[in-house]
Every structure is written in structure tokens, then in C-alpha cells.
Amino acid sequence: MKKTPANTIAHVLIEALPYIQKFKNKTIVVKFGGNAMVDEVLKHSFARDIVLMKLVGINPIVVHGGGPQIGELLRRLDISTQFIDGMRVTDSETMDIVEMVLGGQVNKQIVNLINMNGGKAIGLTGKDGDFIHAKKINTHTISDNEKASELIDLGHVGEVDSIDPAVVNMLCQSDFIPVIAPIGVGNDGHSYNINADLVAGKVAEVLKAEKLLLLTNTAGILDKEGNLLTGLSITDIDDLITNGTISGGMLPKIRCATDALKGGVSSVHIIDGRVEHAVLLELLTDQGVGTLLLR
Question: Number of folded domains in the chain?
Fold first, then answer.
């Protein structure tokens, strides 16, 4: 029988059906970042993916970053930035900018995108509903003689101390889509900037999410010959780190993924956010567009 466009569409829908049935009423946390956040076509395709997930009975929760947008505003305001171990040193003045960009500009843009495409999104930071408690991060640098270390104060840079999911659960049950900026509040009452991958992983753990999806600017985890790897276990990941296949900027993302798996998340997907509709392609098709990590 000759394939027609209508037949192709029908085949795609039928292929998606068992995945829709499997994930109905399940929570899926999506970390939104990279090119998908700045390319207009990709931004709209992402928003439509999230809206469709909600319409078919899946509960998507979006956690977003915003490092490039923060950097751009700091440059425009002529505020210098220093990075140590990949983390932005964040004094009080810089933290004001971080909150303005993450909790305001970027968060509301994503909320608006989802709403424009037929969804009902609400933006949150960790301050809303006492949602994300943070604790301050300090780092150490080794002296030249490698016999002593110096404590480095990163300012308002934090990690997740605890999460109260009540406000997110309420939104999901009320048919809203939560969009979360990675800002927490410490016991001292100060705001802290937290890595968005870490927030996404901890949210997925606490909510017992079915899946955690991390959008990146790569095809996924590649072997040393550049081939895409998928269906990896935690043991496989440890081996790939040991032999140097996974290194550099991918390591924090992988640690976030493995922590989520150990914390009870069923699977983690590291997917190529440069592909249109990457979220739906990974969730609802047989082939997918990234690396699947399993417990």
C-alpha cells in the first residue's frame, strides 16, 4: 500500500498512543535551557510540546536556566563577573540582577510562550509558597604548593537544602503548568542562585517524577568515536566517567541525572534541544532524540 501524508500522520499518532497511555497522570520534569531558550522557532516548538503533554493527561513541570541572559544584562550594566569552578561569584548587587532576569524576564517569557500556545502556566521561584530552601555553597582552591586550601566565598550561590512540593502539587492538580526559576531562599532570608539542573533533579526526586528531561546543546552522551549512547545504567555511567568518555561540562549534568535516578526517578533523558519538538520526539516515539539513562 502506498504511503500518503495522511497515512504517515496516522502512523505517528498510533506510535505515540502507548506512550500517552503509559505516562497519563505521571509527572515529567523538563529542564529548559541552551539553544532552545534563545531560538524563536525552538522556543515555540518547546511551548507546544509542553501544552500537548498537559492536554493528553501528562503533568509537565518546567525548570529553566538563564545564564546567558544574566551575563548579557550584567555586560550592559557594566558589572564585572567572575567564575570559579564554573560558578558565577554572586554578590548582593549581582543577585539582584539574577532575580530580575531569572524570576522576572526569563520566567515570564516562558510562561507567556506556553500561554500563547494554549496552556495555562504559572511562574514560580523558590520563594513562592516557601518552595525551595537553599544553603550557601563555598568552594576551596588549592594553593600552588598543593599543601593548603583556601576557602572561596561565592556569595549568593547555593544548593538545594530542601523542597516543599505543596505549591507545585496544587498547581498541577488545578490544571496549571508550573514554570520554576532556580532561586532558593536560605535560613538567613537571603536569596540564592542555584544551578537549574540541580533544581530540576531535586524537584523530580521530591515529586517522584516518572522522568527527568534535560535539554542540552548536544545530541546526548557520545562515545569517543562520536556515536550516540543510550540505555545507560548508573554502572555504565560510572565506567564512562572513569575512562574519560564523559568529562568537562557534561559531568555536572550527569551527576544531577544519577542523583535523580538514585532518588527514585524512573529514567532521565539528556536530549538535543536544538531539534524541533525534541521533548515530544523523546517521550512519544520509539527512536527518541537523545540519551536515555535508567536505574
Answer: 1
